[in-house]
Amino acid sequence: PYQDSSELKLDGLFIEAGAVPASALVESLGVEVEGGFIKVKEDMSTNVSGVYAAGDISTGSAGLRQVATATAEGAIAAYAAYKWLKGKRKK
Fold it and tell me: Where are the domains of the chain?
């Protein structure tokens, strides 16, 4: 408890797990990187077909390194990857 209370009133909460992107693996696959961050399009796809990135490692959030934007990007990337895989199955 903080000051004999089970509640702590906040104006905001920010979580940071790390600040230096680790992009060596994707760079070795030919994925385009900008300033250490994986360059993504609107659907979180990269320049390499079938490779998607989301969250703090990507350029998608326009610098907003927050849980909310990372989660949204993850959903966008998952749906885009699903559509890509579905298209591959039809061929």
Answer: 24-90
